[in-house]
Specification:
By secondary structure, the protein is α+β, with helices and mostly antiparallel strands. It is built from four helices and 27 strands. The strands form six sheets. It has a five-stranded antiparallel β-sheet with strand order 1-9-8-5-6, with no helix packed on it. A hairpin with a 5-residue loop joins strand 26 and strand 27. The radius of gyration is 46 Å and the shape is elongated.
Length: 511
């Protein structure tokens, strides 16, 4: 009898030890699932998940979590590259999703990261968190890109960040409380109950001899809602040109590490008329734990689409294994861009010019597209011609034009770019050609150039000889006037005397 009691006691101790080990394994699984990361090692860029660097409490392979203090999250991500990037640098940035309940403030976290002596690109940034943030798991979409031999290499990564210092969601268990078991008992009470129970009660029979789920354990999870979030978006950070089509793939992740979801319906909703979608609904019968649903379709941006983000909403309806229904909403922004269509027209420059003269290059810039252009510039380069400065026209709205001109000093063909005469520089005069460079930028600062050729002939400077004829001095003709007046007076006197003499003669005859 005593021997049987000792055996029963030994069995209870062994079973209790097994249950303790089982709970430790469960706890380890929960801690690991609280923070997960997708690391892609394609296109030569990857994340170093083996080593810990300054600012990290552990490497990524051991569950690295960003540090959160005073509403600020410090993120440290070490990048590796198999390719030799131009200027030994890459560009790293962060994109956000879940606009309604996202705990992060949207800012520009784009940085240029230099290659360190350790052969690593270490990206550090501080992300400001909202004070009223909700607890939960949220994705951060990182992207890294660089150039190798002029070719852009880009890779995207998704990091899931666990927020635990915010506002508890409805149905969540407070950190300081222990999860309740059946009948209101906590985990410690449940363990005492099983340690003091006979062996056949502790190990209920299950299929294959395995223990059934323990009441009140993390396996039960009756009060936890399965979470479905958008994990990947192949157009994240990329713009869709108006008038073009693209294949759009969105991946939705079942965040649960052990529970599947069923009867999943995904509906796409948007108020925009600028983007045409091939599909607006998807159905999945069942999605396993940690599995993804792929939503792929062809989308088209109309030609006159506005250059602005298009808000797209995914409404997800699903059920858990017990038939409980849930609904969640995810937000995605599609970037639509209008291709710039500015051009340089009415270019005019004299067919021949003379050394040491100043001429004018005239032109007109026309923005024939549906979007603005920025930092419009015009400059000229030609041998023997020296423009005073480039013409800066600034920003131009869609459908507008601007006239401009540039002063050009005419030198000689044997001058360098600085205007210095070269020894044995060759001919000084003759044909010369060059180009006019017209450039502008889009909203992302990308530069577009248009180059037009010009031709002219530089002639030797002409010396103008002025032949001035000697002019005879003008004489004063006043004496001629006086003589003419005297002549008229004498003529009148003679006429008067003649008439008077005739009068007296006639009177004498009558007498």
């Amino acid at each position: 009898m005593k021997k049987r009691k000792n055996m029963a006691k030994s069995q209870r101790i062994a079973v209790g030890f097994s249950i303790s080990v089982w709970y430790m394994v469960l706890l380890l699984i929960v801690l690991i699932s609280a923070y997960s990361i997708e690391i892609h090692a394609e296109n030569g860029i990857s994340i170093d998940d083996r080593h810990k660097y300054e600012g990290m409490d552990s490497p990524f392979s051991r569950g690295y979590e960003p540090t959160i203090r005073k509403n600020t999250m410090t993120l440290v991500v070490p990048f590796l590259s198999d390719a030799e990037m131009e200027k030994a640098q890459i560009t790293v940035g962060i994109d956000f999703e879940n606009e309604d309940n996202c705990p992060f403030y949207y800012k520009n976290y784009r940085k240029q990261v230099k290659l360190s002596e350790d052969g690593l690109y270490l990206y550090r940034c501080r992300v400001k968190l909202k004070k009223d943030r909700m607890n939960g798991q949220y994705p951060l979409h990182l992207w890294a890109e660089g150039k190798e031999d002029g070719e852009i290499i880009r890779q995207e990564f998704t990091i899931y960040v666990e927020i635990t210092d915010g506002i508890a969601r409805v149905g969540d268990i407070a950190p300081e409380e222990e999860p309740a078991g059946k009948g209101g008992e906590n985990l410690a009470d449940a363990m005492d109950h099983y340690n003091n129970s006979p062996a056949d009660e502790i190990m209920p029979s299950g299929e294959g001899g395995q223990a059934a789920d323990l009441p009140g354990s993390a396996v039960d999870e009756k009060n936890s809602q399965p979470r479905l979030i958008i994990s990947r978006n192949n157009l994240q950070g990329k713009a869709l040109d108006a008038g073009s089509s693209a294949t759009w793939t969105v991946m939705i992740l079942n965040c649960s590490s052990r529970h599947a979801v069923e009867n999943v319906k995904v509906s796409l909703l948007t108020d925009s008329k600028d983007v045409v979608f091939e599909k607006t609904a998807w159905y999945f019968e069942k999605v396993a734990a940690k599995a993804e649903m792929e939503l792929t379709q062809s989308i088209t941006a109309v030609k006159k689409a506005l250059a602005e983000p298009v808000q797209v909403q995914f409404q997800i309806e699903y059920e858990d294994a017990k038939g409980n229904g849930y609904t969640s909403t995810e937000q995605v922004k599609l970037l639509v861009s209008q291709p710039q269509q500015a051009k340089l027209v009415n270019l005019s420059f004299p067919e021949q010019v003379y050394a040491a003269d100043t001429e004018f290059l005239s032109f007109q810039v026309q923005n024939t597209g549906l979007s603005p252009v920025y930092n419009v510039r015009v400059q000229m380069k030609a041998k023997g011609l020296f423009p005073q400065q480039e013409v800066f026209l600034g920003n131009m709205e869609a459908g507008t034009s601007a006239d401009g001109e540039q002063k050009v000093f005419v030198g000689t063909l044997d001058m360098d770019e600085d205007g210095n005469v070269l020894e044995n520089g060759g001919e000084k005069y003759g044909d010369t050609s060059g180009e006019v460079i017209f450039s502008y930028e889009n909203e992302q600062g990308e530069v577009t150039e248009q180059r037009l050729e010009i031709h002219t002939v530089i002639r030797e400077a002409q010396t103008l000889k002025l032949d001035i004829e000697e002019q005879k001095p003008k004489t004063n003709q006043w004496w001629i006037t006086i003589l003419f007046f005297v002549f008229v007076v004498l003529l009148l006197v003679i006429i008067w005397l003649y008439l008077r003499m005739k009068h007296y003669r006639d009177m004498g005859k009558q007498t």
